[in-house]
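Methods — Computational structure assignment.
A single polypeptide chain was analysed. Its primary sequence is given first, followed by the predicted tertiary structure written as structure tokens.
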Amino acid sequence: MKNTKAIKPLFIADLTEAETPEDVKFEFIRAKAKAGVKLTDNEIMWLVKLGSNITIEVIDEHITKMKPIAQFDNVSKEKVDEIFKILTKKEPWYKRFWKWITRKK
């Protein structure tokens, strides 16, 4: 009769949500990190690269959303920045409240 020992895994990766090969690799790295298993330099560099790619995608999406504003030929970047500052300027609450009270109905 052969005696077998149960082997306890170092980490368990959850691949139920993984859709791409990158997702699989990320989940394995994540499982290793959660279990306290030392990550290799290549894994750390891959995570840094993944983070930078995600950042670039987010920036590109926002630039794409902003393009319609910048498509006017006769409007300079400075003018767009000035308009943006005016639109996003927020007065103190008491001034806004006073204007709301004294507004014409």
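Note: Helices lie at 21-35, 41-70, 77-88, 93-102.
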